[in-house]
Amino acid sequence: MPAPPGSAANAALRVTEIFHSIQGESSRVGLPTVFVRLTGCPLRCTWCDTAYAFSGGELLAIDDILQRVAAFECATVCVTGGEPLAQKACLPLLAALCDAGHAVSLETSGALDIGAVDPRVARIVDLKAPGSGEVAKNRWENLALLTPHDELKFVLASREDYDWAVAACRQRRLFERCPVLFSPVQGQLDPAQLAQWILEDRLPLRFQLQLHKVLWGNAQGR
User: Fold this and answer.
1) CA 182, 188, 193 angle in degrees (round to 5)?
2) Which partner from 167, 171, 182, 200 sits 20 to 30 angstroms from 34, CA to CA?
3) Taking the domains of the chain in order of start, what are their residue ranges?
């Protein structure tokens, strides 16, 4: 049944793509997942691998998005971007996906307020290291909102980025707040080197590679 006029389900979002793949990151790595990639991002990270989502996309009502997601018959859904929270209707979309029975995660840069995100959603916050060129955009107030249900991700391009991330985690007691993930920028930081630093420093975190790139390279829609 169509949603009544003026309801949240009729809110529209600009969507770059909706696809079914294997989750390549976070503690959900390896799970079949439906990805809803929203269009637009206020950041311009030097290592960004989804610049194609900065503009364009298709305008879809939340009901339409739910129908496309449901067609994949997959319980796990990830809303990503771009920066999904740059679109106000992302909040009702997240709630609607939860209402539909999905296990929902949100991949966000952390540059925008995460406080209004539905508490059923796992917020995967990507804190920007200096090598991203966007460290000034970090919204540090978000860190106090994180719970063990959420995750904090650092994408690192160098030893300097690594040292910065370790200092941030220790000074702000982030290891005690939620799961922390360190990931190397493909082609800039040797994954084995990052793994070695983590072991040497006895860090209580998760090392991750982007599994989807191991499987399919840099193909879009994966």
Assistant:
1) 55
2) 182
3) 11-216
CA angle 40, 42, 45 (to 5 degrees): 100
Helix (H, G, I), strand (E, B) or coil at 20: strand
Assess contact for 84 and 113: CB atoms under 8 A. Answer: no
Residue 37 CB neighbour total at 10 angstroms:
22
Q: Which residue is listed with tokens 């007691």?
A: 173
| Structural element, H or E, at residue 16 | strand 12-22
Q: Are 55 and 83 in contact (CB under 8 A)?
A: no
The pLDDT tens digits for 28-40 are 999 999 999 999 9
Does residue 143 contact residue 170 with C-beta atoms inside 8 Å?
no
Query: Could you please report the per-residue DSSP string of 134-191?
Result: -GGG--GGGGGG--TTSEEEEEE-SHHHHHHHHHHHHHTTGGGTS-EEEEEPTTTS-H
DSSP state of 53: G
Amino acid identity, position 138 = N
Mention the CATH class of domain 11-216.
Answer: alpha beta
Q: What is the predicted pLDDT for the residue at 196?
A: 98
